[in-house]
Structures are given as C-alpha cells and as structure tokens.
Amino acid sequence: MKKKLDPIQEIMLLLLATSVLSTDRIATTLWIDKQLAEFHIRELVELRYIGSLFDIFTTKYYTYDMDYLNEQVWLIEQKGRKYLVDRGLLK
Asked: Running DSSP on this structure, what letter comes out for residue 89?
C-alpha cells in the first residue's frame, strides 16, 4: 500500500471524486489559504492522483507554475480514486 497522504490531500481527493473544482473553490471549500491549496494540488498532480481538465485534451505534462495552477479546473484521476478505495474512503 502506498504512503498515506496528508489529511488535506485526502479531503481534496474526496471532493474531486464527486465534482471538478478550481483551485479557488478547493481553497474556499476547505477553509484554507489559496497558497496552501496550491501546494497540495501540486503534490497530488506530481503523484498523478489528480489532473486538470485541460490536460485531458493534451498528451504533454507541463511544468506547473502558479499561473497554471490558478487557471485550472481539477479532477480526480483513476490512481487517486484507487487510493481512496484502497483506504475505504470511497465506497
């Protein structure tokens, strides 16, 4: 089993399991600063647990700078969904 994620990241995955959300919406929903949301989003993207709606239509992975993070709408990837299922967080 893979390493346990930070609790904020697990909640982000749970949110994204049911809807696509922007960085701003994630931060607002979790009552965290946008910068903290960006940090956790970057971590989840690097793990390939989440991706952006834009990336679905491309085959290239980009260097994720802050402008890129702010403009995206995020969705859960199969790997992220598997993480939740394996831990009994998604049924």
From this structure: S
pLDDT band at 68 (very low <50, low <70, confident <90, very high): low
Q: Which CATH number characterizes residue 70's domain? A: 1.10.10.10
| pTM of the full structure | 0.82
1 part of a folded domain: no
Q: What is residue 73's three-state secondary structure?
A: strand
What confidence tier does 72 reach under pLDDT thresholds 50, 70, 90? confident
Beta-bridge partner residues of 74: 21, 52
In a domain, 24, yes or no: yes
Q: Would residue 20 count as lying in a domain?
A: yes
Would residue 33 count as lying in a domain?
A: yes
